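Quarterly update from the structural biology core.
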Amino acid sequence: MLEEGALLFKFDQPAGGSKKNEHVTWFEQMEELGFLATTTGCLLPYANYSGGSKGRPKGHKVSALFFKGPPPQFPCHPHGWPVSAQVSHLCHRRSCVNPNHLTYEPQWMNLKRNYCGNTGSCDCGMHPKCVSTYHKDGWEHADALVTYDVERIKDVLHTHLSGLRYTVLPKNHFNSVDKKSESRNQRLRMKRRHPAAASDVVHKRAK
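Predicted structure, tokenized:
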């Protein structure tokens, strides 16, 4: 993903997010691979998250659980319209996991969003309003990627990630973490095998 221009983020989970460890773990695993951030605010995860895997739901559902918690139960509709809870994309981009582009709503409302944009802007009558008009899968989006090369990257992302607590990690973040971890493990192994030698190494570093 980094080769494709992905950004590495570290998001803080809000108080309203799911408290289940597996839900947090799913999101963190997706987060570690980075997200392709677009100039229209979409966050696109690694391709593997476009579908479910071994009991894990699709990426946008993982994101909804992490940031918004479990879906609510909606009351029956007086005309019998389907009310099963779904994660709607306000951006109409099925792979997007930006929580600001996601909302829980009954199935009939989600379906109605598929008829948005006849006037060139959001006109489906749903709330919250769509952030873009409906377009079918495979649509060629005109937005560009926000990469590490973009100037004032935080300012560019701020509008689309408003209300979220996050950090844009340096591109080499996980490599640095791995190296620190390996160095620490090496010192511990050395200490167990040669306590006196390890003590000398620590003493020399202190100097």
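The two ends are 41 Å apart (CA to CA).
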